[in-house]
Amino acid sequence: MNISGGKVITCSPGRNFVTLKLETDEGVYGLGDATLNGRELAVASYLNDHLLPLLVGRDARRIEDLWQFLYKGAYWRRGPVTMSAIAAVDTALWDIKGKTLNVPVYQLLGGASRDSVMVYGHASGETIDAAVEAAAGYVARGYKAVRAQCSVPGLTDTYGIGRGDRYEPAERGSVSETRWSSERYLNSVAPLFARLRTELGPDVHLLHDAHHRLTPIEAARLGRALEPYHLFWLEDPTPAENQEAFRLIRQHTTIPLATGEVFNAIHDCRQLIQEQLIDYIRTPVSHAGGISHLRKIAALAEVYGVRTGSHGATDLSPVCLAAALHFDLSVHNFGIQEYMPHSDDTDRVFPHRYSFAGGTMHPGDAPGLGVDIDERLAATFPYQRAYLPVSRLVDGTVHDW
Ligand code: CS2
Ligand code: MG
């Protein structure tokens, strides 16, 4: 079974997506998500102009060999664009193998290690009252884990504050600039979690995303302040380019730490995992080299007691979510899966077999990944350039968004 060709489908049912459809000479095709928020067309070009011409005529069954061929063969390794393109090819090849062998992908990954996959939802609000109410809504819908974010008094655009259940930070057209103050933010978070614990009780898992905005010592201070509320994790407390920074945080707090959604390769995670500076690794299928590479990251993490907590925001498509759920169901050191429901239009463009029930999800038992794309419908939602916001401190200095 050889690869006979493929196409890169861009569409925008509410937000932009890039999907690889890889085809074989036996008529079986596979899908891979190649969406890199705000830089989508760079990955589409990498696939169209460089990888697809290379792949035609090659044996679609040799997943690991093709992975190494695309990674080492590129000479220019790693990085979000390269690893998202390789991820799309890898994911599509696992989809093809599952369809060809007539089994769901998780069966190829060693079978189910659990009955279903615990997910967390996103609760947010302009006020603590609104955020608590939103979180209670998730619990009422059966969620066992909720991420909570609240606006910061005195700041207009705080990260993670949705409109209703929707949160889409990328804006079509031009880039927006937001203002940030870590001082104001640091004073606003602990009161939110104090209320959440009082109102929701001790059992619900609570998560928070600091979204890379704090200095290491500010992150240590936040971790200490949140310890009484025993969070499931504090995510991206400080930019992870400087991995030593996590040593300083660890010195001051026992709060569980999660990071990795902006990582693209095992080399980005190795020090943090080996020094046990984190407790959850959040690398997603579609930005970290696909299912094949994510399994290697998880295997390294297992040795050090680190669990998976894959990124699953709405800018990762239903193809990525389906692949993530197959991975999550089979990997031993699974921790939790992020789940932000996609828009109805997106769900119509990407019909899928995964399902949600009682705070957990299951990928379904259809052959392959159990997700498809309606190309005709996708074409009715043309791509529209969009940008993530850029953050500036209140004095105008560019800061981490
Ligand atoms: C966030 C994301 O879900 C998360 O944990 O960090 O929403 C992130 O901001 C977006 O994926 C960026 O595109
Ligand atoms: Mg995050």
Describe the structure.
By secondary structure, the chain is of the alpha/beta class. The protein has helices spanning 40-55, 63-72, 80-101, 105-108, 128-140, 182-200, 216-226, 245-252, 266-274, 290-303, 318-330, 344-349, 375-379; strands spanning 3-11, 17-24, 29-33, 117-125, 145-150, 171-172, 177-180, 205-209, 233-235, 257-259, 280-281, 307-308, 337-338, 355-357, 360-362, 386-387, 390-393, 398-399. Strands 4, 5, 8, 9, 10, 11, 12, 13, 14 and 15 form a 10-stranded mixed β-sheet that branches. A 3-stranded antiparallel β-sheet has the order 1-2-3. It is globular. Bound molecules: D-mannonic acid (CS2) and magnesium ion (MG). Residues 209, 211, 235-236, 261 line the site of magnesium ion. The site of magnesium ion has 5 residues, from loops.
Helix and strand layout, with pairings?
Elements: E1 3-11, E2 17-24, E3 29-33, H1 40-55, H2 63-72, H3 80-101, H4 105-108, E4 117-125, H5 128-140, E5 145-150, E6 171-172, E7 177-180, H6 182-200, E8 205-209, H7 216-226, E9 233-235, H8 245-252, E10 257-259, H9 266-274, E11 280-281, H10 290-303, E12 307-308, H11 318-330, E13 337-338, H12 344-349, E14 355-357, E15 360-362, H13 375-379, E16 386-387, E17 390-393, E18 398-399
Parallel strand pairs: 4-5, 4-13, 5-8, 7-17, 8-9, 9-10, 10-11, 11-12
Antiparallel strand pairs: 1-2, 2-3, 4-15, 6-16, 14-15, 17-18
Helix pairs in contact: 1-3, 2-3, 3-10, 5-6, 6-7, 7-8, 9-10
The structure holds D-mannonic acid and magnesium ion.
